[in-house]
Amino acid sequence: FPAVLLAAMLAPMLMLATLAVAGNKVEGVAVLKLLGLPLYAPLAAWWLTGPVGWPFAVLPTWWVVRSLWAGAPDGAVGPALAFAGGGLAVTALAVGLLCRRALTTLQRAH
Description:
19% of the residues are buried. The protein has helices at 2-8, 10-21, 25-40, 60-71, 77-109. It has 110 residues and is mainly alpha-helical. The longest helix has 33 residues, at 77-109.
């Protein structure tokens, strides 16, 4: 369940990232295609166990995947909530930075 809440926060973050970078509709489509790559990269954490997978922790989607997998084997809520807390912190930081950049982009457009 915590993974679902984290995943729901990714849609507004993706919108903010597109708004922060793209200057027009065509650039927006290109940015969405490029942003799709890091969204799927954390799935590699399934094969990269241990400290090798930690570089993906800068991506908010990694925390969603880890939260889901932490609670999957036996339905344990504790590890899933721990990863969800980390994901919430990373996502909040990303949204805050993207909001500042998006506001700058919008002010520059007008």
